[in-house]
């Protein structure tokens, strides 16, 4: 690959995103530059994700390009890894190298250590094992949320201008869309911390029935801590409130003094789930709702908040 790859549209980009042959010369360049040549024979394409990602026995290589604001995403993820490295007890992959494929600064990349095990989606966990992992996740998130927030991008950097428009593209029941602005206006002030921001099932890794790591820090940001629950509860936990309770207890999750009622926790979590939907990206935060609830019968966002997060 002698010149930066260009794609006519997103479909063309996605068609090549996981194509190992297409990216092989770029990967050879990276592993040679950082003396990782022994990794090349074992490299394979990663599953899912937004950016081309390739995995070897010991490392993962993520390339940033084409996607809008990809350079900002690269710098944000680098900053997140530098911050994570200040707490060695956080089980996140360590950044091994970073750089740019081409002299013009295009196609930056990050090389991180590989986390052992399988992701939550592929691991065959019993319910007691799920609770053990939920507890370990809670302990990890407590440490993550305690990290300093200076130099970390705020959620406003990635937020789409209209939360209602973003929700309209999701599986949120359409009858609830007109209520969003009023609902959001009544939330309490955000409790801003360092968050992973994308805790879904492919990003939680398990090895020997224990949490081995949390991967993909491209959405790490400064946001209300309840934003963390959107993907975690609606995807990883499959809306299982018992798992959510285990996680919250292990995280020593603060029930704030300005939560006059327990219901305010559910409202705040619901509001932050709407904000997570409005953070840039094609993913549907609420994709599971039609399979879990009779969504046509849900009349208010308060009712949905209680169904999802009321504990």
Question: What's the quick description here?
Answer:
The protein has 311 residues and is α+β, with helices and mostly antiparallel strands. It has helices spanning 10-17, 20-33, 70-84, 127-145, 163-168, 180-185, 228-236, 241-250, 263-278, 289-292, 301-309, and strands spanning 44-45, 53-55, 59-63, 95-100, 108-113, 118-119, 192-195, 204-207, 210-214, 221-224. It folds into two domains: 10-113, Phosphorylase Kinase, domain 1 (2-Layer Sandwich), CATH 3.30.200; 118-309, Aminoglycoside 3'-phosphotransferase, Chain: A, domain 2 (Alpha-Beta Complex), CATH 3.90.1200.10.
| Architecture per CATH nomenclature, i.e. the level-2 architecture of the largest domain | Alpha-Beta Complex
The tally of beta strands, per DSSP, is: 10
CATH topology heading of the largest domain: Aminoglycoside 3'-phosphotransferase, Chain: A, domain 2
**Tally of distinct domains:** 2
Q: Helix and strand string, N-terminal first?
A: HHEEEHEEEHHHEEEEHHHHH
Radius of gyration: 20 Å
> What percent strand?
5-15%
What is the helix fraction of residues, given as a range? 25-40%
CATH class of the largest domain: Alpha Beta
Mean of residue pLDDT? 93
Low-confidence stretches: none
Distance between the termini: 53 Å
Q: Write out the CATH superfamily name of the largest domain.
A: Aminoglycoside phosphotransferase (APH), C-terminal lobe
Number of helices: 11
Instruction: Report the structural category.
Output: alpha+beta
Specify the biggest β-sheet. Answer: 5 strands, antiparallel
């Amino acid at each position: 690959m002698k010149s930066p790859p260009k794609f006519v549209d997103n479909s063309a980009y996605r068609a090549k995103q996981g194509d190992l042959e297409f990216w092989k010369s770029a990967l050879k360049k990276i592993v040679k530059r950082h003396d990782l040549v022994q990794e090349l024979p074992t490299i394979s394409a990663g599953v899912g994700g937004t950016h081309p990602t390739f995995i070897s026995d010991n490392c993962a290589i993520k390339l940033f390009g084409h996607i809008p604001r990809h350079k900002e995403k690269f710098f944000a993820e680098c900053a997140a890894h530098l911050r994570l490295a200040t707490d060695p007890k956080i089980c996140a992959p360590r950044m091994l190298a970073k750089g740019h494929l081409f002299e013009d600064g295009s196609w930056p990349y990050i090389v991180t250590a590989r986390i052992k095990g399988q992701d939550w989606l592929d691991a065959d966990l019993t319910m007691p094992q799920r609770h053990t992992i939920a507890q370990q996740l809670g302990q990890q998130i407590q440490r993550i949320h305690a990290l300093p927030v200076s130099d970390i991008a705020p959620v406003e950097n990635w937020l789409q201008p209209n939360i209602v428009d973003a929700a309209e593209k999701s599986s949120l029941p359409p009858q609830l869309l007109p209520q969003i602005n009023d609902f959001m206006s009544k939330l309490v002030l955000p409790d801003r911390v360092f968050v992973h921001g994308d805790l879904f099932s492919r990003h939680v890794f398990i090895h020997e029935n224990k949490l081995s790591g949390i991967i993909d820090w491209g959405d790490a940001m400064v946001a209300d801590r309840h934003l963390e629950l959107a993907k975690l509860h609606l995807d990883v936990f499959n809306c299982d409130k018992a798992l959510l309770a285990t996680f919250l207890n292990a995280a020593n999750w603060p029930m704030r003094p300005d939560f006059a009622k327990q219901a305010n926790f559910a409202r705040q979590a619901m509001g932050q789930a709407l904000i997570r939907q409005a953070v840039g990206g094609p993913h549907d935060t609420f994709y599971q709702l039609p399979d879990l609830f009779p969504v046509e019968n849900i009349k208010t966002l308060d009712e949905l908040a209680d169904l999802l997060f009321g504990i």
